[in-house]
TrEMBL record:
Keyword tRNA processing: no
Any one GO biological process: translation
Protein name, entry field: Ribosome biogenesis GTPase A
Organism: Acididesulfobacillus acetoxydans
GO molecular function terms listed in the Swiss-Prot or TrEMBL record: GTP binding; GTPase activity
Family: Belongs to the TRAFAC class YlqF/YawG GTPase family. MTG1 subfamily.
Residue ranges constituting the CP-type G domain according to the UniProt record: 14-177
A Pfam family recorded for this sequence: MMR_HSR1
Length: 273
C-alpha cells in the first residue's frame, strides 16, 4: 500500500508560504509528538532558508512521555524545540519568550535605528491536522481560526494578533509530493494527516495492528483479546455488522483508526530509534 496526498491546494500553499516568508520574523514549525520524524516536511528546510525557527512537538498528550523526551533531546541539536499540547495548553507559556529570544537581534537592530518595536510576526507551519489553528486559538484565547478533526480545514492565510508582542499567521497544512519511505505515508495516515479517501482503511488498520503487536505495545480490550485482536473481532465487539450478521470489516477498520487517533488505545509513539 503506497499512500500519497498532494492535491492542487497544497501546491498553492507552498507558493503562499514562500510569498509570505518575506514578511515574517520567525517561523513556528509544528510536528506530531507521535511521529516526530515522519511529520516533518522535508520541503520546509529549503523553503524556510535561515529564518529563525522554533520546532514544537504538538499532541504530547497522545505520545509516550519517555519517547517525547528522547526525541526532544535529539532534536535540540538542530535548534530550539519543546513539547506542547494545543488542546490542554501545556507548554504554551514558553512560546512567546522563546520567540522573543529568537528575534532579539532584529529587535535591537530596530531599537538601534530609533524605531519603535512592533509585534513579532510569526508564521505557523506544519502538516495538515497537526493543530496549527488550535494552537493559535489557545494563544489568542478565542476561536478566531477554524479548526476540525480532519485534514485540510484551513485554506487561506489568516493573521491573528495574540497580544501586543506577537502576531501569528495561520496557514494551510502542507505535505510533500512523494513519501520516499512508504512507512512514513502509513504513519501520517494513521495519525490523521492524510484524507481518509486516499487510502484503504482496512489495509491501514491491519498494518497498524501488526505494528502494535510487533512493537509489543499493550492495548486495552477489545483490541487485545487473547493476544492481538483481528478486525473481525473488533467489528463484532463494536457492533459493526452487515445484514445477515457478518462483520463489516471496513467499518471496523474506520472505528479502530478513529479510536487510535483519539488516544483510546493509550499513548503511542510510532517513530522510534
Ligand atoms: N489530543 C490532541 N488533539 C489536538 C491537539 N492539538 C490539536 N488537536 C486536534 O487536532 C485536530 C486538528 O486541529 P487543527 O487546529 O484544525 O489543525 P490544523 O493544523 O489547523 O489543520 P489544517 O488546517 O487542516 O491544516 C482538532 O480536532 C484538534 O482538536 C493536541 O495537542 N492534542
Ligand atoms: Mg488549520
Amino acid at each position: 500500500m503506497s499512500i500519497q496526498w498532494f492535491p492542487g491546494h497544497m501546491a498553492k500553499t507552498k507558493r503562499l508560504l514562500t510569498e509570505q516568508l518575506q514578511w515574517v520574523d520567525a517561523v513556528v514549525e509544528l510536528a506530531d509528538a507521535r511521529i516526530p520524524a515522519s511529520s516533518r516536511n522535508p520541503v520546509l528546510a529549503e523553503l524556510l532558508g535561515n529564518k529563525p525557527r522554533l520546532l514544537l512537538l504538538n499532541k504530547t498528550d497522545l505520545a509516550e512521555e519517555v519517547w517525547t523526551k528522547r526525541w526532544l533531546e535529539s532534536l535540540r541539536g538542530q535548534g530550539p524545540a519543546f513539547g506542547i499540547s494545543a488542546v490542554s495548553g501545556r507548554g504554551l507559556g514558553r512560546i512567546t519568550p522563546e520567540l522573543a529570544k529568537l528575534t532579539a537581534e532584529r529587535a535591537s537592530r530596530l531599537a538601534g535605528k530609533g524605531l519603535r518595536p512592533r509585534p513579532i510576526r510569526v508564521m505557523v507551519v506544519g502538516i495538515p491536522n497537526i493543530g496549527k489553528s488550535s494552537l493559535i486559538n489557545q494563544m489568542a484565547g478565542g476561536s478566531k481560526a477554524k479548526t476540525g478533526d480532519k485534514p485540510g480545514i484551513t485554506r487561506g492565510n489568516q493573521w491573528i494578533r495574540i497580544h501586543d508582542k506577537i502576531e501569528l499567521l495561520d496557514t494551510p497544512g502542507l505535505l510533500w509530493p512523494k513519501f520516499e519511505d512508504p512507512e512514513v505515508g502509513r504513519k501520517l495516515a494513521a495519525t490523521g494527516a492524510v484524507r481518509d479517501e486516499v487510502f484503504d482503511a482496512e489495509e491501514l488498520a491491519v498494518w497498524l495492528l501488526t505494528w502494535l503487536k510487533e512493537n509489543n505495545v499493550r492495548v486495552p480490550p477489545p483490541y487485545e483479546s487473547r493476544g492481538q485482536a483481528t478486525l473481525e473481532e473488533i467489528g463484532r465487539q463494536r457492533g459493526c455488522l452487515m445484514a445477515g450478521g457478518r462483520v463489516d470489516t471496513g467499518k471496523a477498520a474506520q472505528e479502530f483508526l478513529r479510536e487510535f487517533r483519539r488516544g483510546r488505545l493509550g499513548r503511542n509513539t510510532l517513530d522510534r530509534f
